[in-house]
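Chain and conformation:
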Amino acid sequence: MEKLIRDINHDARAVTGQKNDVVCFGYQVGSHLNYYQFNPTDYPAIALEQLEMALEKDSRYVMTTPMYHFEYSDGVHLTAPMSRLLWGVCGLCHEESPVGWGGLETRASPDP
């Protein structure tokens, strides 16, 4: 995931001419909880790695919320109201984030 964020940052800055680094907002997966009944030894490796990445100094990954407290329609997908709530939380985190925006720039891709 760190490589993906670096690649997105590199490509987005090259295409748009943006000077600020790209910051990625995400959530902490909790899907390992859905498979516990099939594998009680399941360990939340991905969720813990996301947490570590979000806590790293100078990380460009902002964890907005864990997912365990949301309501799922089928054990995997959020219900529509929960999906709306999730992205509302992400938007709030975007607005309140201390990552040093210096103001967001919205620019179209340069003409070819």
